[in-house]
Amino acid sequence: MPDKPLRSFFDNLQNKAQETASRLADKHVRLAVTGLSGAGKTAFITSLVNQLLESGSTASLPFFSVVKETRLMGVKRVAQPDLRLARFAYEQGMGALNNMPPAWPEPTRGVSQIRLHIKYQPAGGLSKLLFEHSTMVLDILDYPGEWLLDLPLLSLDFGQWSEFCVSQMQQGVRQLLSAPLREALLTFDWFAAGDEVKLLALSEQFRLYLKECKAAGLELVQPGRFVLPGELEGAPVLQFVPFLGDKADWEQVPAGSNLALLIDRYEQYRDKVVKPFYKAYFSGFDRQIVLVDCLSALNRGEQAFDELQQSINWILKSFDYGQNSLLRRLFSPRIDKLIFAASKADHVTPDQQDNLIRLLESMVHHARQDMRYQGVKIQTTALASVKASKVGQTQYQGQKLSVLSGHDMHGQTLSLYPGDVPARRPAPTFWQTQGFEFPQFLPPRRDPLTALPHIRMDQMLEFMLGDKLQ
């Protein structure tokens, strides 16, 4: 019997051969689920897996053609391809949703992966004549939304990044939040001999400022690992701050100075943390869904909304878009289909969902134009991966009005009309007069043996996977 290392070698070789064959046959999809913190990525992936696993029994997927045509034979989870990554916590997420009272899955705090095999009958053509069934491989990666905002740092040197941070500190509520930090940066001796103790204290003050920005609902918070460090907690590579002082001659920074140490740490962070993360996980996607929580940004005000829009458009520049050829599928795949999805569509009444879609379209207007030029197929939608509310009717001033009912985050019954959604970026006067408060709901109480209720998850699956399951 071969020994374990040899057996492992042949198993890896077989897996690689199968993956290459799937890529050649165009039966392998790497799906990027992109969204900032709070957009609902983990709940979305949990629901996506649940809908597929339950597609032969309790799932409601009328717009997913392979289900509608009764060609889907089954879906199963298999071992993920990269054993260095954590296993996506599907069972734990479903456990939380099935609890009494139910709870949302825990937010992502590290990188995890899941692989599904989707077995189906071909719809027609040569495949139907040659094969009784086919199998498509679906890989999904989950990662903290906070880390996404680091990807644009790959194109910024320390001076450019510092200039961006200092400018950002002067804007809106950040001006108040950054006041103690700016005072400390202004009085810091940048050119003195490097003092790691002082740099640690200063970086902790910077980190506190970033956490306060996040707590205030601001979206453009980076470096992302300062607020969610993961395995880098306490490492010197997370101990740097932006330069604030007289204009520096970046070519003449004294060796061994505080500033020289900060520049080195920033470059180490960019080159040894952000770049490997990008190369390992973001350079091989075929399709992408971008989840955007427009409603929470509307709740939090103008600055939060503008930072969300800026963040999404900034992040999208880090992905590779365009049509895929056979060689590209094997060696350098591009994203050829993309969905922009306003999440939490169940937090507004059905008559406002069209406005929610138009609002999102206005936020990503320029990015959509550029991607269409590159040949990317794009859809904009509003969905709820787990529908947490019910729609009812009430009388108000002699007219029928749609209302939402569900349970708030404390478990209390809630029934309300959350308000009208603007169809595009609101005018400045809107933020002083807006009269809505989009609620937060607990997940619905339901039979744990049934599929999760949703809004438009079947349409999302059809757009993302329907052509691959023909």
UniProtKB/TrEMBL annotation:
InterPro entries referenced in this protein's UniProt entry, alphabetically: P-loop_NTPase, YcjX-like
Protein name: YcjX family protein
Signal sequence range: none
Superkingdom in the source lineage: Bacteria
Species lineage: Bacteria, Pseudomonadati, Pseudomonadota, Gammaproteobacteria, Alteromonadales
Originating species: Bowmanella denitrificans
